Amino acid sequence: MRASDKAKIRQRRIGHTLLVVASFSLMFLGKADFSALRSARMGLNDFIAPVVDLLSAPVRGVETMVQGIRTVASLRAENVRLQAENAMLKRWRRRAEILESENRQLRSVAGAVSPDRRVALTARAVTAPGGAFAHTVLVANGSDQGIAAGNPVVTADGLVGLVVDVGAAYSRVLMISDINAQIPVILASSSWPGVTTGNNGPFLALRYLPEEAMPRVGELVLTSGHGGVLPAGVPVGRIDLVQDDYVRIKPAVDLRNLSYVSILVGGTDGIDTNNLELGEYYTPLPQDDDSRLFEGVNALGERQ
Fold this sequence. Notes:
CATH architecture of the domain at 119-281: Beta Barrel
CATH superfamily of the domain at 119-281: Rod shape-determining protein MreC, domain 1
Order of helices and strands: HHEEEEEEEEEEEE
CATH topology of the domain at 119-281: Thrombin, subunit H
Strand order of the largest sheet: 1-12-3-4-5-2
Number of helices: 2
Shape: rod-shaped
């Protein structure tokens, strides 16, 4: 037998032996208890887990930092967007406040009643009412809009004054609180006539009342319409104080806060409006006899 054949036979025997050993090993493992193997594996996990946790800590830190950077960037973008929205809302709020103020001011003249033969023109006050020496206000309507000297100026609350100077686009109004303003009026409840005079202050004085007149605090004072310059029945104010012969009137209109007014145009044809103190249109009642300059009925329908 040759040496090569002997070597081949020896290799086959080794192979067969290994196969038999492997077979018996598999059979033994199939019958054996795996509790020892599981215990070994859990022990290995207990050893590896802290190592893995230690090695993964830097990775988690990097992930947290990246997430924080993304969050900061997102918050910054959100902050920019919210600032833009806030600025826009502030602009809209300012606009709404302006419109609300303008609407409130326009409502103050929307209810102004226009007497017969007169047309009401709304005008904006362009200067602050009143001053140290004269209580006048400049309004943004003039002769181009048909405004003329002598036109009454009112709001929904009552009389403001009279137009005294007229330009092409602007007019100057003499307010009833001016020291030169004299307005013929009547007491609403008794129809007694009188004249209000300004004193460049917040109140008016009621003068030239007849001796038998008994003005009361809170009584309404209206324009009498005497002379034709002013329409009759426009509220001037209410009696605020009665002390001996002095009667004080609080104006119906807040003359310190004028924004919009109504100018009553027309109705003065044939009337001389050059003297707006109305001196020619009113004569104080005589004190020495029983005659009356004005006649009419009072609020109770009694002849006066």
